[in-house]
Specification:
Layout (H helix, E strand, L loop, with lengths): L2 H25 L10 H9 L10 H11 L9 H29 L8 H19 L2 H7 L4 H22 L3 H14 L9 H12 L5 H40 L6 H23 L3 H17 L3 H8 L12 H8 L11 E3 L5 E13 L4 E12 L2 E3 L8 H11 L9 H25 L1 E2 L23 H4 L7 H4 L5 E2 L3 H16 L1 H13 L2 H7 L14 H22 L5 H28 L6 H11 L6 E4 L6 H8 L8 E4 L6 H7 L25 E3 L9 E2 H8 L8 E2 L5 E2 L6 E5 L2 H6 L14 E5 L4 E3 H13 L5 E4 L14 E3 L3 E4 L18 H11 L4 H4 L5 H23 L3 H14 L7 H16 L3 H22 L11 H20 L3 H19 L1
Parallel strand pairs: 7-8, 7-16, 10-13
Antiparallel strand pairs: 1-4, 2-3, 5-6, 9-15, 11-12, 13-14, 16-18, 17-18
Helix pairs in contact: 1-4, 1-5, 2-3, 2-25, 3-4, 4-5, 4-6, 4-7, 4-22, 5-22, 5-23, 7-8, 7-9, 8-12, 9-10, 9-20, 10-11, 10-14, 11-12, 19-20, 19-22, 19-23, 20-22, 22-23, 24-25, 27-29, 30-32, 32-33, 32-34, 34-35, 34-36, 35-36, 35-37, 36-37
Length: 1000
Amino acid sequence: MHLDQYKKINNWTGFLLFATALIVYTLTLEPTLSFWDCGEFITAADKLQVGHQPGAPLFLMIGKLFALLAAGDTAKIAYWMNFSSALFSAATVMFLFWTITALASKCYPGKRSMNERLGIIASGAIGALAFTFSDTFWFSAVEAEVYSLSMLFTAMVFWAILKWENQANDRWLVLIAFIVGLSIGVHLLSLLAIPAIVLVYYFKKTSSPSLPGIAKAIAVSGLIWATVQFIIVQYFVLFAAKLDLLFVNTFGLTFGSGAISFVALLAAAIVYGIHYSIKHRKYQLNLGLICLSFVLLGFSSYFLIIIRANAKPSLNLSSPDNAYSLYNYLGRVNYGQTPFLYGQTFDAERTDIKETGLEYRRGKEKYEVSGKSMKVIYDKNMLFPRTYSDKPQHVDFYRNWLGLGENESPSFAKNLKFFSSYQMGFMYWRYFLWNFAGRQNDVQGQGSNDEGNWISGIKAIDASRLGNQAKLPESITANEGYNRFYFLPLLMGIAGLIFLYRKNRNDALVVLTLFVCTGLAIIVYLNQDPLQVRERDYAYVGSFYAFAILIGFGVMAIKALLARINAPQLSLVIATITGLIAAPGIMGFDGWDDHNRSGKTTALDWASNYLNSCAPNAILFTNADNDTFPLWYAQEVEGIRTDVRVVNMQYLSDDAYINQMKQQLNQSAPLPIKMDGDKYIKGVRDYLYYIDYGFTDSVELKDLMAVLTSDHKEDQKEFTDGDYDNFLPTKKFKITIDAAQLLKTGTIKATEKDKLASEMEWTYNKNYVLKSDLALFDILANNNWERPIYFATSVSEDTYIGLDKYLYLEGYAHRLLPFKVDPNDERDKMERTNSEQMYDNIMHKFSFKGFKTAAYLDPESRRIAQGTLQLNNTLASNLIAEGKPEMAHQVLLKNIHEFPSKNYSINDTVNKFLTIRSLYQLNDLSNANPLISQTISYLYQELNYITSLDPRMLPAYTRDIKISLSMLYELDKMTAEKKQMPLNQQIREQYQRLEARLSS
């Protein structure tokens, strides 16, 4: 095969793989909104707004271009942004192919035969296709997230350094610098390819590489990474902020004058440096300055953030409208600090707090001091701290995971054990094996043995840990995430590594460096605490990319092995077929069902239903990403229920966000926040302590607000630092109720007037008041029932501020209603319903079609479905108790007809049991009995599997066992009472059989 012919085949095969991947991703694309950050990204891109720290301005600008393809159809904006991820991911696959073929070509120096060239093409194609169907990459390829574009930049820089190596043209280095700069405006993943890039450069420039030379190259790469990560991304902005402070506060110039001057001075210095390097023929200096210029040019996408923040869009998180706030925005200060090389243990006590500097905010005419940055000093510290979080749930997890006693402090050895077993093992290798070995289910893992496990697909593997695979219940075998790869992709990658090491040790080290830096090194750097809210495998996709390169070389390893016994042509054919089946074939076949998001609209349906849970012009308090971002999307992009004001309590501690809440937004009037801006600006009333003054009577909330926001010293307390500050003098609050006002505003019906309390009294449930709490108090005190107030059902308990007994479900949200509290009513807020309104919402305003149309319900969608069924069952039970059986029956029929009947977990079965119980109360046995049959079949399979586990593992399943046996017992009683004898006999037999097995 002629070289030109090979290049054409190589290029066209890359394009073909691009088209193949694009078709795969388009077929499995989510047609609308996804959960987590996608809603915020789409919302921010559509109107070029400011999202959460540290921002992704280039991603937003590119996303806006794709949003324009919707041609005015707002319902299609999410689709086109999702499609952009598919496009970026397909391009990544193409560049991966060319990367593998470039590396593989070096294994055959000199003139290559046709068989060798075709082997190179086959290796690149199989490696690229393996990555196409890898679990983590596929997941990000079908939704509007930053990781697809970030991975494309990473693939491009690694491909570009190989082009430089082949051509020795330094323009490729300039291109790499520009791509790295651009990638900062998306995600910082591509920076982690720098060590591998530097190694390629070192091996090209050095005729005889050595271990000291390699070590120096890696050290230089670390210096380059730190320069970009910290000096360019953060400290250049800090220098601009410091100069702006000087120009504004000292010289009396306008805001931004110092920052602009810094940019001008930096540009002038670079131009002078380039001129000097040309004049004095200093090539390396010239190349370095040009590369720096292109990094900064790419980084300039961040001007979008500060420009749009000054425009004050409706979504303007942290409001980075000046150099100081932009520096904090880029530094992710809202996310707190995590110790890295040296720090505290989880049981350490705070001994001191040291001031480390001043913090500034933008005032009316100059920068003002907003507070002091502090460093906490602890009494227990260690090197490389991995067990550092003092959150109670984290402390319990550490102790349980490491087997620590109640008062036992973690030793350095235990600390390293947590690093190796949890951070490395559970939070990396588990994800790695998902991609290349298989997994038992798609349930999120929090450290227990049955969640998100990897498996090989071999029966009876490690029965003590995963149970007897021959006895797996349908909840596992029918789970779309039950992917059995039989270790084959993993074995191919290992074989590829061995082959590459034998052929070219330098390239093997380069690929391994890329693998480590984009995977294990991130684990070390992030130092994650336990109980993450979601799986974090997306952060390590770069390492899976590197392993896909090795899978490609696995084809060459198989070919080389077969060539010893077969003709070269036959060896190539067999190796190619084997590679196709063992990696992309099995990965695509088993992974299709749990990556196919076609027809899935659950996130959008959920967001619409949440908003439709609220009465007109409502105020809805939410918390966290997944409870807010879909609502923002629904309102801002598709214009759904824009009369409802969504208030995220996490962001309400930011003065800029409070200011936004005081403005008109779409159809939502300003919130009734009466505080002046100077009462809650940054550094003022950020945290107010509770000091018990022994008050026994409740205090009117409006009067309390006057004290909490007072600037008079008689309303404040002097603290140990000599400063005066407000404080919370009581936890007993009240709001006096005016029945006429509630009738006037339509909060209650005339028939409900007798249910009203004269005062709404409650006990505040925290020992401090955050700025977000202060804003909430202000809204409650001044709303005067003119706007309905709701709290999301999924927020943390302290978000309700102790109002639980006045909260009533009307769907997905609790409505605040000042009804009398019945001391004999022991129901909690998840059991109390404003039944008629909730019935109307569920039956006439909610849509559950996404649960039926989706090709696959992911864990988050199943969580929503479980929660919805729980709410529906609660409503049905209350309607029965209220003497409204027909309404209850309609809700139960909706459960049966509009929700999937498939059991994924014990929670699904509990909901089904509650539906059965209510149907039996209504004597609808024809609909209830088929559900009973499904339930007892599920419970028997589950318990039969659990009993195959090692007895030492059974305590982890205590809850499931107790709930299962309890349901069987109740079903036994119910069917006996209704004289359903064949069904009752079946239940008793299963119950007795399982009870005997568990007792043995």
